Amino acid sequence: MHRLSKRSVKSLLRSSTAARYRDVAAPISSSHFFYQSADADSKGRWYSVLTSGRCDVIESTKPFKTRNEPFLGCRFESTAAASDASDSPSEKFEYQAEVSRLMDLIVNSLYSNKEVFLRELISNASDALDKLRFLGVTEPELLKDAVDLDIRIQTDKENGIITITDSGIGMTRQELVDCLGTIAQSGTAKFLKALKDSKDAGADSNLIGQFGVGFYSAFLVSERVEVSTKSPKSDKQYVWVGEANSSTYTIREETDPAKQLPRGTRLTLYLKRDDKGYAHPERVEKLVKNYSQFVSFPIYTWQEKGFTKEVEVDEDPAEANKEGQDETAEKKKKTKKVVEKYWDWELTNETQPIWLRSPKEVSKEEYNEFYKNTFNEYLEPLASSHFTTEGEVEFRSVLFVPSVSGMGKDDMINPKTKNIRLYVKRVFISDDFDGELFPRYLSFIKGVVDSNDLPLNVSREILQESRIVRIMRKRLVRKAFEMIQGIALSENRDDYETFWENFGKHLKLGCIEDRENHKRIAPLLRFFSSQSENEMISLDEYVENMKPDQKDIYYIASDSVTSARNTPFLEKLLEKDLEVLFLVDPIDEVAVQNLKAFKEKNFIDISKEDLDLGDKNEDKEKEIKQEFGQTCDWIKKRLGDKVASVQISNRLSSSPCVLVSGKFGWSANMERLMKAQTVGDTSNLEFMRSRRVFEINPEHPIIRTLTEACRSTPDDEEALRAIDLLYDAALVSSGFTPENPAQLGGKIYEMMNFALAGKWGTVSEYQQQANQKPHIPETVEAEVVEPVEAGGQK
Ligand SMILES: Nc1ncnc2c1ncn2[C@@H]1O[C@H](COP(=O)(O)OP(=O)(O)OP(=O)(O)O)[C@@H](O)[C@H]1O
Q: Which residues are ATP-binding (predicted)?
């Protein structure tokens, strides 16, 4: 049998909370040794100790006078053994540059919320257990060591040491180098930026967990971290040692038999002087309860306990004599109650997953805590939903609507969110299958789904083919909408505003991508309108506000509320008090076009031809056509192919004209957006450009004057040039981009010449003046100072 070395026994004792030794006898076996206590009151007695490798559990007897007395058995626990106990050589490694920067920031910049280190390390331990359990489904030999899947945390408050041991997947030597010496650069860059952004507000350690660098949070509180780990893939156990403020770390083989792990990882944190308070058992217990309550593996903490027992009391001899006279009293010995203290593991978290509990038993606070712990969030969710479906397909789920997005524009199109954690019969499978369980526009929903019907070796391909998943997906989507509706209906309007600000775009994407759910999405949309420029309204509110004879929902798409409010298309509608939705987000127009209608009312773009405001008067139209028909033809002749036709407008009141888009082509807004998105040559967009109709306002003085000109002098150059300018002006005011802005500028200056000259002189005089070269006054020439030569002489 392999024996413990004397040296490892000493190191074990050195780090033990309970044992200060004077001497150590040669160990008897790999787990049994004797030591002589150095405590004054033990009077140099010998103690017998049994130690198990895994958690350094030490069983010690009551004191012996010699070391040959038999083992009896009361327990105490040692903390991790000192690190220098090993004989094996250490190899030194440099951290990747990113890790060094990160460590430097963690050690030197993060001072608030340091306690999150425990949550992060427990979360890594839980991930390692999840991985083992998952792999164990197909490779049962991985689970052959009869070790429970759990996490054990032990503290040594005198020395400021915390050990966290999990029986998870562990790491091979190469994995230690890959996982704890390097990090994905994208994550770090984001983390460093977030850190910089939040620095003024007091950098918060909470940020760590969100960027996949949780392990390094150990250095928030530790000056030295040891990771001793044993992977089932390797015969050997390795120890990684890193120190705060060092750019290197070491790896060596664990040769100390007392520290061998059957499987898994033990982290030993040697706390900084100011952070030793974290090594109090009660503090650790509190942190676990606070932050890691819902980890789905048992977390045990090492706690001092006590039980009361009756012990006999040594009697005073005088009293005993007195009592001796009384025979019955002699039989009853005096006792007292004493509290016997001992240390033992205590289960500290709730081991039943929250989704397996009855929703009636779970409080809102518990859901919020579960959410924060599971998804590394520090804000509470806006809503949650806990449900079970039975029958055709059985699964349980808890879903959440977050209160912040954390997703960029690209993430919405191509989400890689890890927001849905899929379990099969309580075994965590993956958080990579969001896309199979939710459409991408709902990828912001977070939660847990636990199915009883899927196979444990489920893959993306299986999910994509599975009828069960299709049914699950439908139910999950329905539940997600119920949650969002709940927020929309809540009395607190702010919540929905927050939701809309963060996820409004996602729902609009849903209008485009999920026709089946239009009925659920549409009532959730919000827009500004001509009657509500500061507060967004719902489509229901719009419909309620419709005029009794109004048939359609009117909208205008533009780049801002201000430009929407000032568009000429709006003039008649404002006069008639008809509300118009302002679609100012680039995605709005396509979303609304996909919806087509809401509550059987069609969406109508007021910038497109054939606008019907429900006020048709055929006689009057005929009359106006007769009066202005010739003008329309004359203008069309001048504008040629630039416009499809010239018509009399029913939507203008103060502008002379407007350029409306054809019914089936792009609006001015869409044309602008498409041009902005096309790189390089935009001529290939021409075919999608809609036909344009030039509408004139017969009541406007310019149109009336031009009508006169059309009748009397249709070939007059100035009148024709006025038509050109009118067209260009309509182009701009209708939201289109003029084809030749410089030429438009020239036309405006020319017209200004005429206007100004008409008031203060003749055109020819004005033109003459304008053509003259700039006049340089003589006095200026006289004042030119010639250079002064050296010595002050000319
Ligand atoms: N207890 C452990 N057991 C096994 N492997 C671990 C353990 N702790 C950390 N690791 C490995 O180290 C890697 C780095 O951990 P780190 O916490 O920095 O990032 P992460 O776990 O990938 O991201 P996050 O912290 O956001 O979960 C992990 O991905 C894992 O492979």
A: 120, 124, 166, 171, 186-187, 210-215, 265, 460
Ligand 1, atom 23: closest residue by C-alpha: 212
CA of 215 to the centre of ligand 1 (A): 6
Domain that holds residue 642: 618-753
pLDDT at 779: 39
Q: Looking at the domain assignment, is residue 504 inside a domain? A: no
Q: Give per-residue pLDDT as tens, 739-774.
A: 788 888 888 888 888 788 877 765 555 555 555 544
Tell me whether residue 11 is in a domain. Answer: no
Q: Does 413 score more than 80 pLDDT?
A: no
- Residue 374: which CATH number? 3.30.230.80
| Protein residue whose Cα sits closest to atom 14 of ligand 1 | 179
pLDDT of residue 377: 85
Do both 564 and 649 map to the same domain?
no
pLDDT level of residue 662 (50, 70, 90 thresholds):
confident
CA-closest candidate to residue 576, choices 606, 597, 621: 606
Which residue's alpha carbon is at the smallest distance from atom 22 of ligand 1?
212
Residues 412 and 485 in one domain: yes
pLDDT in tens, 561-583: 999 999 999 999 999 999 999 99
pLDDT band (50, 70, 90) for residue 687: low
Tell how many helices (H) and how many strands (E) occur in the chain.
26, 28
DSSP string, 118-167: HHHHHHHHHHHHHHHHHHHHH-GGGG-S---S-EEEEEETTTTEEEEEE-
Angle at which helices 185-199 and 97-109 cross, to 10°:
30
Lowest-pLDDT range of 141-155, 487-501, 676-690: 676-690
266 and 410 in one domain?
A: no
| pTM of the predicted structure, to 2 decimals | 0.67
Q: Which residues contact 679 (CB under 8 A, 6 or more apart)?
A: none
Could you tell me if 650 and 625 are in contact, meaning their C-beta atoms sit under 8 angstroms apart? no
Same domain for 266 and 133: yes
Question: 583-612: per-residue pLDDT in tens?
Answer: 999 899 999 999 999 999 999 999 998 898
- Measured from the CA of 124, which atom of ligand 1 is nearest? 8
CA distances from 490 to 363, 383, 446, 519, 786 (A): 19, 11, 20, 20, 82
**What whole-number distance in Å separates Cα of residue 96 and Cα of residue 766?**
74
Does the pLDDT at position 263 exceed 60? yes
128 and 271, same domain (yes or no): yes
pLDDT (mean) for 153-178: 94
DSSP codes of every residue in 475-538? HHHHHHHHHHHHHHHSS-HHHHHHHHHHHHHHHHHHHHH-GGGHHHHGGG-EEEETTEEEEEEE
- Select from 432, 461, 489 the last residue of a domain: 489
Closest atom of ligand 1 to 123 CA is: 27
CA angle 538, 544, 548 (to 5 degrees): 140
Which residue's CA is the closest to the ligand 1 atom numbered 10? 124
Q: Whose CA is nearest to atom 13 of ligand 1?
A: 179
Counting residues of the chain whose pLDDT is more than 90, the rounded percentage is 47
Q: What Å distances lie between residue 463 and 421, 442, 451, 620, CA to CA?
A: 14, 18, 12, 65
Q: What average pLDDT does the structure give for the chain?
A: 82
CB under 6 Å to ligand 1: residues?
A: 120, 123-125, 127-128, 166, 168-171, 179-180, 209, 212-216, 265
How many domains are contained in the chain?
A: 4
CA neighbor of 13 nearest in space, from 80, 86, 71:
80
Q: Ligand 1 test: best mutation among 123, 124, 227, most atoms within 8 Å of CB?
A: 124
Residue 503 lies in a domain: no
Same domain, 252 and 118: yes
